[in-house]
């Protein structure tokens, strides 16, 4: 409790508020409907979070710069439409069509990043134009039919329909993930000690590892009670871990955080600001395209509504609710996981209760506002302690 109290006053609560919020959401909906925490519903939830979660990871990168990308929804819909038209209507093999669709997202990110970094157009304006323009291109590609159905036995459809039914898969992933976390944390302690900088106590690492082990094994048990480990969830976790390593353990990641902390200070250290900015928008576009393919896989089609509706708001809200600061310089890819879990849990609970979707919007809006308030109070506390 003393550690939590000290971190609260210093504005360093991290993911504690969102984890507590997620527990509250689960307790409330489970008390209202006993099917909410059933293995089937939780398994479906683990697949439902992937599409939006992938998009939200890209949003995290942009938010770390203190910027915004309003085009991710349209880019995701365009990628799904491009894949569907190439594969279904023009007979392009699925792997090639998939790569083209993802590469299209990368190119779009590069174009938008160029106008932002080189031309000086605000990111808000560039991506707002992208929101409209890429959505229009998606409608043009789909043509008059407006809907292209995917092969329900094809590669993209399997992204969200395939499960590893062997119980060893889920438990093995839990054990490997926990062991990997402990080893990475231990190696980090050794490096920091060798460099003569403060380190996290081994007792704290042991407690964190134990908590992670319990959560991971419990999740594996729940998934095995239904259909096993979903392929979609496995891919999502691979992206989360991989890009988290990029942000926290590479020079490129440090440049992103430095740029989010202070553009002028980063420029004076010799950092290529324009290149980093363009690359971050490329990451955002790529992840939006990948997320769009997972969303199309879930419904096995690309339609005129792909990438529209509240998808953009959910992707941004997930990143912010999960703990990424809208002011830049603070956040992790895991923010996307935590935030999208909160949002999709609310959506799942509302659907099970048969409540109007309007209620879901109001609840999500309230949670988003609370997350931003906590972020603002956290920055104020850090400023008071001379950390901002």
From TrEMBL:
Q: What is this protein called?
A: Xylose transport system permease protein XylH
Q: Which domain of life is it from?
A: Bacteria
Q: Where is it located?
A: Cell membrane
Source organism per entry reads Streptomyces sirii
The cross-references to PANTHER family, in alphabetical order and at most eight, read: ABC TRANSPORTER PERMEASE PROTEIN YPHD-RELATED-RELATED (PTHR32196), XYLOSE TRANSPORT SYSTEM PERMEASE PROTEIN XYLH (PTHR32196:SF32)
Q: Spell out where the chain crosses the membrane.
A: 12-29, 49-65, 72-90, 96-116, 123-142, 162-184, 205-223, 229-247, 276-296, 308-327, 334-355, 361-378
List the top taxonomic levels of the source: Bacteria, Bacillati, Actinomycetota, Actinomycetes, Kitasatosporales
Q: What does this protein do?
A: Part of the binding-protein-dependent transport system for D-xylose. Probably responsible for the translocation of the substrate across the membrane.
Q: Does the keyword Signal apply?
A: no
């Amino acid at each position: 409790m003393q550690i939590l109290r000290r971190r609260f006053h210093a504005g360093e609560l991290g993911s504690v508020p969102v984890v507590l919020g997620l527990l509250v959401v689960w307790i409330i909906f489970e008390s209202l409907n006993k099917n909410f925490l059933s293995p089937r519903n939780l398994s479906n939830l683990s697949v439902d979070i992937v599409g939006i979660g992938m998009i939200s990871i890209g949003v995290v990168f942009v938010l770390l710069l203190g910027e915004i990308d309003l085009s991710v929804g349209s880019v995701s819909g365009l990628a799904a439409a491009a894949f569907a038209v190439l594969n279904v209507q023009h007979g392009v093999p699925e792997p090639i069509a998939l790569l083209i669709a993802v590469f299209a997202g990368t190119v779009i990110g590069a174009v938008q990043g160029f106008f932002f970094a080189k031309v000086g157009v605000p990111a808000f304006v560039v991506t707002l134009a992208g929101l409209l323009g890429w959505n229009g291109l998606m409608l043009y590609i789909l043509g008059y039919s407006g809907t292209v159905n995917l092969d329900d036995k094809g590669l993209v459809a399997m992204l969200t329909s395939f499960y590893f039914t062997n119980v060893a898969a889920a438990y093995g992933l839990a054990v490997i993930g926990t062991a990997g976390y402990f080893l990475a944390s231990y190696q980090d302690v050794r490096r920091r000690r060798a460099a003569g900088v403060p380190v996290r106590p081994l007792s704290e690492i042991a407690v964190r590892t134990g908590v992670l082990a319990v959560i991971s094994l419990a999740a594996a048990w729940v998934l095995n009670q239904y259909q096993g480990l979903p392929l979609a969830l496995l891919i999502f976790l691979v992206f989360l871990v991989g890009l988290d390593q990029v942000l926290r353990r590479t020079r490129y990641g440090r440049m992103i955080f430095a740029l989010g902390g202070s553009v002028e200070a980063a420029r004076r250290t010799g950092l290529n600001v324009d290149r980093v900015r363009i690359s971050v928008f490329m990451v955002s576009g790529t992840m939006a395209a990948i997320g769009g393919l997972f969303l199309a896989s879930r419904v096995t089609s690309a339609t005129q509504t792909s990438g529209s509706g509240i998808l953009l708001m959910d992707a941004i809200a997930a990143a912010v609710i999960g703990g990424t600061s809208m002011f830049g310089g603070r956040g992790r890819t895991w923010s996307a996981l935590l935030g999208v879990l909160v949002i999709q849990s609310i959506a799942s609970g509302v659907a099970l209760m048969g409540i109007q979707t309007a209620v879901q919007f109001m609840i999500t809006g309230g949670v988003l506002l609370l997350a931003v308030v906590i972020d603002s109070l956290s920055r104020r506390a850090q400023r008071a302690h001379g950390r901002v």
